[in-house]
Amino acid sequence: MSESARPVETVVEVDAAARGTAISPDLFGVFFEDLNHAADGGLYAELVQNRSFEYTPAHRPEWHALTAWELLERDGAAGSVSVAVEAPPHPANPHYAVLRTTTASTAGRGAGLRNEGFDGVAVREGERYDVSLFARLADGTADRLMTQIESRDGSRVYGRAELGPVHGSWERHSAVITCEVTDPEARFTVVAGGIGTVHLDLVSLFPQATFRDRPGGLRADLAQAIADLKPKFVRFPGGCLAHGVGLGNMYRWPETVGPLQTRRQQRNLWGYHQSMGLGYYEYFQFCEDIGAKPLPVVPAGVCCQNTEPTGQVGIPEEEMPDYIDEVLALVQWANGPADSPWGALRAAAGHPEPFGLEYLGVGNEDTITDTFRDRFSRIHDALREHHPEITVVGTVGPSPTGEDWEKGWAFARERSVPVVDEHSYKSPRWFLESTGRFDAMDRGGPHLYIGEYAARDNDMRSAVAEATYMIAMERNGDVVRLASYAPLLAKRGHTQWLPDLIYFDNTNVWPTLNYHVQRMHSVHSGDTALPVTVVGAPRARPVPEPARHSVHIGTSHDTRAEFTDARVGPLGADAAPAPDFADWDAELGHWKPGGDGRIRQTAHGTDARLVLTAAVDGPSYAFSVRARKNGGGQGFTIGFARTSPGNWYQWSVGDWLNRGMRLQRVDDGVLHDLNDSVDGPVETGRWYDLRVEVDGRRIRCYRDGELIHDLEDDPAPPEVFAVSAVRDSSAGDVIVKIANSTSEPVTVHLRLTGTEVVTGFERTALAAPPHATSMFGTAPASPVEDRLPGPVCDIPPHSFTVLRTRPDEAQE
Ligand code: AHR
């Protein structure tokens, strides 16, 4: 906060009578991907883990078909459990459990199976649970099955139900258990009725109290948290999950609809398993239940370019016609009449009415190669010909700049793709610096879908930066058509990606500060952007840079290397040798001076940095070092212009799978690429002379005397006090949104011109210290709602405020 802490006086004038600019009605939505265990053990309410015995070491090395299950031999019963594949209930779901009882218990019961659930089976007193399974009697008299919910130690029974009689061919059996106890860590058991062998598959325990009481549906509290965002659309199933690693791992929609036993389960590329219980039918149903448009994403006929060892591969020529038919069939499945071939499947699943599909994503972050262009064009052409009513959403690579982004946009323009999907995982500073990018967009080109974006790190700074970016989207809502934060869900103990929007465990749901921002924007969206003038707003303060810069040497990922002959000094003079490496600070990695003027980095599997603190006077100097790689898959990082532990520039030599070299900037620990990669992998065993020259904002990098990069990094001034105004015509309201990312309190004097007297505003405000973090646990602040009697509003530092008024009220 400024020293005097006197608020900055700011005037916000809104032309409330202006025609304004139409805003996309679908602007703010959500993106769901099964990452961080978002689906099985998360949004999909099934309580039994590995219910179909389809886990394999290919999904996770320590997994097998009986993971999460154990054999029960209680009260003298004895037996065994194994897994078989002969004549399963359905070939798509080949494995099943063989439960053999050789000795019955004193009570005449057989052996059984016990499931640990997903970190336990969370049950609640008085709730009813649907239990179901497929069973076949192979031999003996074990034709009854006792199922029960019990305590973790097995000492207490919370509810039970008997199933059977089991016959010699597969049949589905079901019952209902009413649970008598609340326990977040219960267990579920199935015990055979006597001696003999019984086959079991698709063993399920499902709460009846799902979201909107849909049988086999979604966990109510998590689904409600998503519904409360009032998303205009839901994008699914990915993300990388959509195009998969390798052609066999692609998410193929027809395999995810129909009876559960017919759905092809498979590896989740995020390192676990997809039961496909949450499939296209469930996604579409959820969209309908929350009034959001479905935005499915199908692979663009290529798998992920990061597939090892093949890279991007296209669906073979001869299979493309069938694949295109599959994509066209999705439209018929979603929208066709109940008596059409695919519409009939939807109707058979319980939804005779069309789902009303409008958008279809084709591809995700794919490298824009000739193979991609070919496959995408054929799918796009077919959709245009057969379903011109569908708006296709293309893809422009994994980041908002760079080669794929440029090629992706050029390709989309050439092919007249109506909307393209762009992704930004960046620092708060990047978002504040990038708010002008939509203002400059070509109004005649493809519309933009910001399909994935998030600012690090679930703190208030990131939340306000996102609010600011969303304000920029809103004022450009004529070309920014859709936007969704990512990732949406993350389970405690299984979080693979940070930050996320909603954290949860088996019984809790924790919305973040970022969630509150999304909700405030979405609930208070409008149809028309109005002109706004802001006078006297706080500005970005120039951050005083320390007079001396630090430099570092480093290695990336699993690389081992040695360095020698480090020099730093003023530009144009002979650089002096830097202090001995023994006096540098090891920030990461394992650094060992050799006594021969060299230092070796020997750690595996981590980035490593050795820092020479306050090495040189800024802003103009040279830093050079000799480096040799001794092993590993990437290369060196040469850091300079370090102004604090989380902020520096770096030259990555042997960047991203050792493909090339590029310049990067690290803001508060978040890496941004400053240029495209220049070819040039690092050879193991070869010495390289690496030299960086810093001349104010200009940076030059030389490898073995050859100039590799020469660029000026001149970031745009951040938009630190952002204001938008929109009209919500259906309600007759004017809505003003204000994001203040400064430490200044501001007093805003609001003027709405062209309207009758405004009598007051409904205010929703979210404010918290910039580094207050929200993850697992209650957020440090939540939106506060009140009524503002007049046009003067105090805006706290680090805050997001929404003001809503109905100017015509006074006239009524
Ligand atoms: O949101 C997580 C991942 O980030 C998505 O799967 C992918 O599209 C992006 O790289």
Automatic annotation (TrEMBL):
Recorded catalytic activity of this chain's protein: Hydrolysis of terminal non-reducing alpha-L-arabinofuranoside residues in alpha-L-arabinosides
EC number of this enzyme: 3.2.1.55
Lineage top rank: taxon: Bacteria
Residue ranges occupied by any Alpha-L-arabinofuranosidase C-terminal domain in the UniProt entry: 451-799
Record InterPro entries: Alpha-L-AF_C (IPR010720), ASD1_cat (IPR055235), ConA-like_dom_sf (IPR013320), GH (IPR017853), Glycosyl_Hydrolase_51 (IPR051563)
Keywords: Hydrolase, Signal
Transmembrane regions: none
Family under the similarity heading: Belongs to the glycosyl hydrolase 51 family.
The protein's name: non-reducing end alpha-L-arabinofuranosidase
Native species: Streptomyces sp. 900129855
